[in-house]
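Narrative of accomplishments. A recurring question from our advisory board has been how the design workflow behaves on a single, concrete structure rather than in aggregate. To address it, we present the structure tokens for one chain from the evaluation set, followed by the sequence designed for it. No filtering or post-editing was applied between the two.
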């Protein structure tokens, strides 16, 4: 018996440099072939580089960072883009913006997280803000990847993802 194709999940944030990058890398790490994560932003960083502290906390957590880059969400609205099953906004700015049309009308959810890159303080305090954001994202993603297959079918996926936002 062949396994079903992975569920494609797109995480959106304004700059695609911290929260959405953390979510993309973590879901690809935890997803074990059941999920394929992507991330994008409405106004990605010009240099296409994720925030250095996001990359550092991922590496310290044993999560691969190769290939991560800040990119615009228009990449995922193109005809040759992978079809998304679920689109999750992870910052309040992106949740309030008008998103492009996503082919296939994927399920949507909003999981709000404070922006760790806005934290001021010592280098250790700033790193800790990224670490805490990663832990919060990881907790929710662990719940997602452990949902039964019945909770991930097309009709139930949106309800499942939105219910996780309440945890």
């Amino acid at each position: 018996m062949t396994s079903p194709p992975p569920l494609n999940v797109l995480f959106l944030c304004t700059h695609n440099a911290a929260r959405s990058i953390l979510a993309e890398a973590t879901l690809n790490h935890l997803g074990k072939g059941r999920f394929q994560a992507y991330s994008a932003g409405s106004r990605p960083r010009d240099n296409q580089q994720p925030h250095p502290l996001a990359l550092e906390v991922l590496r310290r957590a044993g999560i691969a960072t190769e290939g991560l880059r800040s990119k615009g969400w228009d990449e995922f609205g193109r005809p040759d883009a992978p079809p998304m099953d679920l689109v999750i906004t992870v910052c309040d700015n992106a949740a309030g913006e008008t998103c492009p049309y996503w082919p296939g009308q994927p399920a949507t959810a909003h999981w709000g997280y404070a922006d760790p890159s806005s934290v001021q303080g010592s280098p250790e305090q700033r790193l800790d803000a990224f670490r805490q954001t990663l832990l919060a994202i990881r907790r929710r993603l662990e719940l997602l990847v452990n949902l039964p297959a019945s909770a991930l079918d097309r009709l139930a996926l949106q309800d499942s993802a939105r219910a996780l936002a309440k945890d």
